[in-house]
């Protein structure tokens, strides 16, 4: 559902990533920009002369020792936003726009960023309540009802609300075989889940005018509980599933095969809405050809306020930027800060950003990407993302990034572990398009082993974040210790890469 946009979001709307200069007039309206620029230059020069010891390399001393209190004030603001939203959430259809406004107004008031909003479309699927399903075996007056959420459930992204009465069930074997006959018009297609794309099979059913699709698990399997019905890299113009798609247990699947008719009611909706990334370019400093993108997703899941996932990363990235600006940090390599929208909807924002990079040839300027997703997990392990997981084109550079992060943790005398970098966050579109990437992460539903507990403290045999993707991912769920450590490491690594003279050489060199 498109949310009403505030004047702030409308005014700085800009879809063009490439030429940041374009938006200046639009953003500041009637303010005489030339005058502001001259004033900033004069103030900047005076501050430079007064405060910066000449020939001193970065960082300029003294850097703040602890960013945690300021990060928590951003977290509190984002938590308030969630509280005032419909569902105590900062998802795209709840508190996301207000979260973005907080970031944007802070950027405009406290930094020299060129702030840009990069708009894109995402599909939204909502379930008001679980579906209902009943069957009869010959006598339409004798109906057997099954239990939603246990025997069957509406699959994620699986279609609009519908009410289907006394429909015939048609079993389809080999749904993706071209020779399969789809005699399903106005009927319910029943398909045993196998080694095929659920989207492809369900879409075939829809094109053949089925009224609904039910996938059921193979004997002894529960795989369907994790599957969703959508094109993996959905983008504007791609189709959505309209007919209801349900998943069922193997035993219900077997019962449905011998039923004579079925009744189904679903309470879902699917629609496309528009959202955006918030992007800050620090244009005045650093080689454009050695651009470093720093990203954290700003949206949460709809189930909760997403304080660890990922207000923690978004707030840390914001505070790091404010710190760099306060310290008059002059990177040798251009820094681009990104707060992604719709990460929780199939990495919508970062995928869109990379697609636009490719279209515009801007991609050549991007040397690397750093991801900050979940930095404050309550039972945390400080993880560094594993560079060798990147595809060959991005592998060497990603390994170099991993090693730089390791050096930073070593310097802080803090232990760390390595986590895979295979999927599930915004680094994916970057490494898939040969941009070396890395990042920090403090864990979600992984269980902490006894050995890890001895190394990092916390609670053994418990999840690293017991509130992952749940309503209880509130402010109290965020670990101050984790934030203190990860923000220090993130700041240090950003300074190191930002001030590196031969960034490309470093990333391309083979590691020792
Ligand atoms: Zn996340």
TrEMBL record:
Residue span, Peptidase M28 domain: 277-493
A molecular function GO annotation: metal ion binding
Enzyme class: hydrolase
InterPro entries tied to this protein: M28_fam, PA_dom_sf, PA_domain, Peptidase_M28
Record key words, sorted: Hydrolase, Membrane, Metal-binding, Protease, Transmembrane, Transmembrane helix, Zinc
Pfam assignment, any one: PA
Cofactor: Zn(2+)
Ranges that cross the membrane: 33-52
UniProt-listed Enzyme Commission number(s): 3.4.-.-
This protein's name: Peptide hydrolase
Highest classification ranks of the organism: Eukaryota, Fungi, Fungi incertae sedis, Mucoromycota, Glomeromycotina
């Amino acid at each position: 559902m498109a949310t009403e946009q505030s004047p702030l979001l409308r005014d700085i709307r800009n879809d063009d990533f490439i030429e940041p200069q374009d938006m200046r007039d639009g953003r500041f309206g009637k303010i005489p920009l030339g005058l502001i620029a001259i004033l900033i230059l004069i103030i900047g020069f005076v501050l430079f002369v007064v405060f910066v010891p000449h020939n001193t390399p970065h960082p300029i001393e003294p850097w703040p020792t602890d960013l945690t209190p300021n990060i928590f004030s951003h977290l509190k603001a984002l938590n308030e936003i969630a509280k005032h939203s419909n569902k105590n959430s900062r998802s795209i259809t709840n508190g996301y726009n207000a979260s973005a406004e907080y970031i944007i107004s802070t950027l405009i008031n406290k930094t020299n960023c060129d702030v840009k909003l990069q708009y894109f479309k995402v599909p939204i699927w909502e379930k008001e309540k679980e579906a209902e399903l009943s069957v009869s075996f010959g006598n339409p007056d004798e109906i057997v009802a099954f239990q939603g959420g246990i025997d069957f459930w509406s699959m994620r992204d699986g279609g609009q609300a519908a009410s289907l009465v006394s429909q015939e069930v048609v079993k389809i074997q080999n749904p993706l075989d071209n020779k399969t006959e789809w005699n399903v018009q106005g009927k319910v297609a029943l398909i045993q889940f196998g080694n095929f794309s659920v989207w492809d099979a369900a879409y075939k059913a829809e094109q053949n005018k089925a009224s609904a699709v039910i996938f059921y698990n193979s004997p002894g399997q529960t795989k369907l509980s994790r599957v969703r019905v959508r094109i993996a890299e959905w983008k504007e113009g791609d189709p959505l599933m309209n007919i209801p798609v349900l998943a069922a247990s193997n035993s219900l699947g077997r019962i449905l095969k011998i039923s004579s008719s079925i009744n189904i009611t679903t309470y879902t909706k699917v629609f496309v809405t528009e959202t955006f990334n918030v992007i800050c370019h620090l244009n005045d400093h650093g080689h454009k050809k050695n651009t470093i993108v720093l990203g954290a997703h700003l949206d949460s899941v709809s189930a909760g306020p997403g304080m660890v996932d990922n207000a923690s990363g978004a707030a840390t990235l914001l505070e790091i930027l404010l710190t760099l600006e306060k310290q008059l940090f002059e990177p040798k390599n251009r820094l681009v800060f990104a707060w992604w929208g719709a990460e929780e909807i199939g990495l919508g924002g970062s995928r869109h950003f990379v697609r636009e990079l490719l279209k515009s040839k801007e991609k050549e300027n991007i040397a690397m990407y750093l991801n900050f997703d979940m930095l404050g997990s309550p039972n945390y392990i400080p993880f560094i993302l594993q560079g060798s997981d990147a595809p060959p084109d991005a592998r060497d550079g990603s390994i170099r990034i991993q090693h730089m992060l390791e050096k930073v943790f070593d310097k802080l005398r803090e232990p760390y572990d390595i986590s895979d970098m295979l999927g599930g966050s915004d680094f994916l579109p970057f490494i898939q398009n040969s941009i070396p990437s890395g990042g920090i992460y403090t864990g979600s539903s992984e269980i902490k082993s006894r050995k890890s507990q001895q190394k990092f403290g916390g609670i053994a045999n418990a999840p690293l974040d017991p509130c992952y993707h749940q309503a209880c991912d509130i402010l109290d769920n965020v670990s101050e210790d984790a934030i203190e450590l990860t923000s220090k490491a993130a700041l240090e690594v950003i300074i190191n890469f930002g001030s590196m003279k031969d960034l490309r050489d470093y990333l391309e060199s083979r590691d020792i």
